[in-house]
Structures are given as C-alpha cells and as structure tokens.
Write a structure and sequence with these properties.
Shape: globular
Number of strands: 7
Strand order of the largest sheet: 1-4-5-7-6
Distance between the termini: 45 Å
Strand content: 25-35%
Length: 185
C-alpha cells in the first residue's frame, strides 16, 4: 500500500501562502460561497482597503471568466481513461504582500490562437490605451458568443495593473487546458 503524505502538500501550500485552492465542478453556488469566504477573510485583514477592493474585483472577474467560458463538457478523454471537465483555481499571497489568482479550465483547442492573440493585445496596451479599449468594447453593440461584451480579461488587466500571465496545454486533439494568472500588487 502506498503511503499517503498530505503533509508535503500542506507545507508547499504554506510556503506559497495559499489562501484557498479548489479543483472540481464550478457552480454558481460554489462561486457564491467562495466570494463569501474571501470577503470574510479580507474583513479581518488589516490591509489597505484599496488593494483589498482591487483584489476582490479581480477575483470575481477571474472566477466568472472561468465559469462562463468553460467548455460545457462532462468528460474529456485522456491517456488514463477519462477526466472530469472540471476546473481549478488557487488564491495566494505574493511575495510583495499582494495577491495572485490562478485559474485553469478546459477549452476547445480551436479557440486557443484567438484567445492568445487577444491576451497579448491587451498585455501590450499601456494603461491609457487599455482604458480606451475597455470603453470602446463597453460602448460597442458587439456581443461575444457567451453573450457578454468580452470585457472580463480587459477588466482583469485594468484592475490588477499587471500583465496577464497565461498558458495553454493541449490535452488531446479537440481540447486544451487554459491557465490564467492575475497578480495584484
């Protein structure tokens, strides 16, 4: 029998200053609970109110972005059989006293290139241009295939004040795993 050692996971999460981590199906009820948990934790934190407000706003955008843009699949085949088409997120403190939000979910590989181009475009805008781009999108009548104006990633970049880190890993022919990281100083 293989020995179970969750202590190593605990130590790693302690070292990385993980506030909350979750893997599984993302539901509206789960998101409501997460928002409440984080709101309560921030309430008892004697930190800068402006930073807490930014962090909370970016967290909501990141989790909503993941929830609304996850591919609606029950199972995705992989080498070892099937894995649930669930998602993962981790919220932790960063070395500078800020926060880092990491999300990961499955998307169709055919959507990778467009998303990559969009994030790179947003990452290359200065704050003034980013605000102008946000207002342009906000005022356009253009809706994404998910019914929104496509403001989530723009808003994450605006509110965090940092470039969005991301990665795509092809899982199999039609699916890739999308990782997004937002840092709030």
């Amino acid at each position: 029998m293989k020995k179970i050692n969750l202590y190593k996971t605990y130590l790693n999460m302690e070292k990385e200053e993980v506030i909350l981590s979750f893997k599984g199906d993302i539901t509206k009820d789960l998101l409501s609970s997460i928002y409440q948990i984080i709101e309560n934790r921030l309430e008892h934190d004697a930190e800068d109110q402006k930073r807490k407000k930014k962090f909370y706003h970016v967290l909501v955008e990141c989790l909503q972005n993941m929830y609304h843009h996850m591919e609606s699949l029950k199972e995705i085949p992989n080498e070892g059989g099937k894995q649930a088409a669930s998602a993962i997120f981790t919220i932790c403190r960063s070395n500078d006293g800020g926060y880092k939000i990491l999300t990961g979910n499955f998307i169709l590989t055919e959507n990778v290139e467009g998303l990559k181009e969009r994030i790179e475009y947003i990452n290359n805008l200065d704050p003034v241009s980013l605000k102008a781009y946000y207002l342009e999108k906000l005022n356009s009548n253009e809706l994404s295939d998910k019914g929104g104006a496509g403001l989530g990633i723009i808003d994450i970049a605006r509110k965090s004040g940092n470039r969005i880190e991301y990665d795509f890993e092809e899982v199999n022919t039609p699916y890739s795993f999308f990782t997004l990281a937002a840092k709030i100083n």
